[in-house]
Amino acid sequence: MHRSRVYAILIDAPAPEAARAAAFWSAALGVPAEPDARYPQFIDLHDALPGLVTAVQAVDDAPRFHLDFETDDVDAETARLLALGATQVARWQECRVLRVPGGHLVCVLPVESPPEIFDAQARTWP
Questions:
Q1: Can you point out the beta strands (E) in 39-125?
Q2: What is the pLDDT of residues 30-63, one digit of tens each?
Q3: Rounded to an integer, what distance in angstroms lies between the CA atom of residue 94 and that of residue 28?
Q4: Which end of the chain, C or N, has fewer beta carbons within 10 A?
Q5: Closest Cα partner for 93 from 109, 104, 79?
Q6: Could you give the CA distance from residue 73 to residue 50 in angstroms, rounded to a whole number?
């Protein structure tokens, strides 16, 4: 058995437009936008969606939105989503990038939340 939960919603913007996109979303949502010191491609939108990390991500691709799933077993969660019809398209560090039916992307990553949040909100899968 393993557990997972939606951890983040990312607003992917072409890299040259990421700062402008972050400024727009910050103003539109009424929240601060701050670069992530660990990962410079992310600009955090603090508390935009309570309970979820929300950020603008600079990408070398088309604009889109994607979800991040955090899990205590990346291999098992990836296999679960593949069995549901997703296909793996890339890896980035420990993250697996999947394309799901309908064409959207999702990422599967190790637990990032504090343990008490993950324990309270994660679903258990066989």
A1: 42-45, 53-59, 64-71, 87-92, 95-99, 105-110, 123-125
A2: 999 999 999 999 999 999 999 999 999 999 999 9
A3: 32
A4: C
A5: 109
A6: 25
Report the alpha-carbon distance of residue 67 to residue 51 in Å, rounded: 13
CA–CA gap between residue 70 and residue 5 (Å, rounded): 6
- How many Cα neighbours within 13 Å face the side chain of 61? 8
Average pLDDT, the chain: 97
Q: Does 92 score more than 90 pLDDT?
A: no
67 CB neighbour count, 10 Å cutoff: 16
Task: Write 77-81 long-range contacts (CB < 8 A, 24+).
Answer: 77/2, 77/4, 77/108, 77/125, 78/108, 80/2, 80/4, 80/125, 81/106, 81/108
Helices then strands, counting H and E runs in the chain, come out as 3, 9
Asked if 88 and 97 touch (Cβ cutoff 8 Å), the reply is yes
What is the rounded CA–CA span in Å between residue 89 and residue 1?
25
